[in-house]
């Protein structure tokens, strides 16, 4: 199309007496569309140069390599700014939005949490599992000293895995942290590794693990802990 524009401009420049219909007939015989010829003539009359000049704004093209980088930067992350991503990848925000839809990632805009009133003034109680360290003298003394109410060991229900899906999550997270024989050398390194793996975890899976907790706890309250066995 660029070569066609140059040829039309050249013909018009050499002979100003040529009519648009004459130029149109000449190029239609070569297989070009009539509408394209008249559009180029109109550009010539408007004084627009035959070659495209650099335009303002960021480009809209997006390479396959950048598509993989975009997936890595946005998967399972809430509130990633599309404008900032546009600056990072050197493209327009609309390009980021289009490619997020292309790879099937739904964008969740970060929203400020409302001021919670429900439960705001209620008292809370610390409910741990039956790990011995949670009921050690040092631990219970600290809880009492800081006036933190906790469930006494003698009334704490047995550890029923079906009512503690969070334990499954810790197991899954631990596998991800130490996969491929990874080892930590410092506490800070371990923290960063844990945060990294949490970000890579699909939160929908975690939410699904917690959906039936209320029903199961109610069943235990009504029929006892062995009702889930």
From TrEMBL:
Mind telling me which InterPro entries this protein's record contains?
Answer: RNaseH_sf (IPR036397)
On the tree of life, the source organism's domain of life is Eukaryota
GO MF terms listed in the record are:
nucleic acid binding
Supply the name of the protein.
Uncharacterized protein
Q: Which organism is it from?
A: Rotaria magnacalcarata
């Amino acid at each position: 199309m660029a070569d066609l524009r140059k040829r039309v401009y050249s013909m018009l420049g050499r002979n100003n007496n040529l009519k648009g219909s004459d130029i149109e007939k000449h190029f239609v015989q070569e297989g070009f569309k009539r509408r394209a010829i008249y559009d180029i003539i109109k550009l010539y009359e408007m004084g627009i140069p035959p070659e495209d000049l650099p335009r303002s704004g960021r480009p809209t093209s997006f390479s396959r390599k950048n598509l993989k980088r975009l997936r890595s930067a946005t998967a399972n992350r809430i509130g990633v700014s599309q404008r900032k991503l546009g600056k990072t990848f050197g493209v327009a925000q609309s390009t980021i939005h289009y490619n997020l839809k292309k790879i099937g990632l739904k964008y969740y805009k970060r929203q400020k949490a409302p001021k919670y009133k429900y439960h705001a003034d209620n008292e809370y109680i610390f409910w741990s599992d039956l790990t011995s360290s949670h009921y050690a003298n040092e631990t219970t003394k600290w809880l009492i000293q800081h006036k933190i109410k906790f469930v006494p060991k003698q009334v704490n229900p047995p550890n029923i895995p079906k009512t503690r899906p969070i334990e499954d999550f810790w197991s899954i997270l631990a596998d991800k942290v130490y996969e491929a024989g990874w080892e930590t050398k410092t506490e800070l390194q371990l923290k960063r590794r844990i945060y990294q793996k949490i970000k890579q975890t699909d939160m929908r899976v975690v939410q699904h693990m917690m959906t039936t907790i209320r029903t199961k706890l109610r069943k235990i309250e009504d029929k006892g802990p062995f009702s889930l066995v």
